[in-house]
Design goal:
By secondary structure, this protein is an alpha/beta fold. The protein is 48% helix and 14% strand. It is built from ten helices and ten strands. Helix 8 runs parallel beside helix 9. It binds zinc ion (ZN). Zinc ion binds next to loops. The site of zinc ion has 6 residues, from loops.
Length: 257
């Protein structure tokens, strides 16, 4: 049914184009291409022609980076316990308003050698905000979290959902931030079951990879116990593969063997 609908759409589009002059056709196709490029830029975190985004490191070595978004929450303590047990380091993109509610977990993550990044204050989608609103989100997030980790002198920001805009890119340049995308997500936020999360993670986990996980849920405090259970499997299997779980500054800044 979908194929038939697509074929019909393509056929009617081709017919409409055939009625236009060559210049109108070129203008139309150019418009479609530019619109497509714009959508990809805004909604695809890893696509950034401005070079302001960290995605992955493609080089030999055994380092992988776990990153956790949307905390600190009631589940962050269990995540920190597991990381400590496995001598693994990670990067936490905390939300300012949650950091204010659980400052002891922010301090613990920092003291235990994990890297802290900014995820904004209230999980507002930054691509929809004007410059003043973006600055306010970043500043309030940074104030609540405290000192942020840096890669090559720039602080780390993960935009909610990874959505971006030209205004955001401009502000990140001014304020010395990297946008931090991810090389693989496993949709743990949909709670598909701990086994599914672990299986997806182990399929995509490769040296140089930034894996996206969640110790919170947007601005709310949903159940993340599946992610916690999956993390045990991920850490154990990763160790068997000889992987070293490092922070993003360690992944990007330390030369690889
Ligand atoms: Zn988020």
């Amino acid at each position: 049914m979908l194929v038939l609908a697509l074929l019909l759409t393509a056929a009617s589009l081709a017919y409409a184009l055939a009625q236009l002059s060559i210049w109108a056709t070129i203008a139309f196709l150019l418009g479609v291409a530019l619109g497509g490029l714009w959508l990809v830029f805004v909604y695809l975190p890893a696509f950034d022609p401005f070079g302001m985004t960290l995605v992955r490191v493609a080089m030999p070595g055994n380092r992988v980076a776990l990153s956790f978004d949307d905390g600190p929450s009631a589940h962050t303590e269990a995540v920190l316990d597991l990381l400590a047990t496995h001598q693994a380091k990670a990067t936490f993109f905390f939300l300012g308003q949650k950091a204010n509610a659980r400052p002891e977990l922010v301090a613990r993550a920092r003291n235990e050698g994990h890297a802290l990044g900014n995820h904004g204050f209230s999980h507002r989608k930054l691509h929809r905000l004007n410059a003043a609103e973006i600055r306010a989100e970043l500043e309030a997030g940074a104030t609540a979290i405290g000192e942020l980790a840096t890669v090559r002198g720039r602080r780390l920001l993960r935009a909610p959902h990874g959505f971006k805009s030209l205004t955001l890119i401009k502000i990140l340049k001014q304020q010395g931030y990297w946008l931090t995308a991810w090389s693989a997500g496993v949709w743990d936020s949909d709670c598909p079951g701990a086994e599914v999360i672990a299986k997806r993670a182990l399929k995509v986990l490769k040296p140089g990879c930034i894996l996206l996980l969640h110790d919170g849920a947007g601005a709310t405090d949903a159940d993340r116990s599946q992610t916690v259970v999956a993390l045990t499997t991920i850490l154990e299997a990763g160790k068997q593969r000889g992987y070293q779980f490092v922070t993003l500054p360690e992944l990007f800044d330390i030369p690889h063997a």
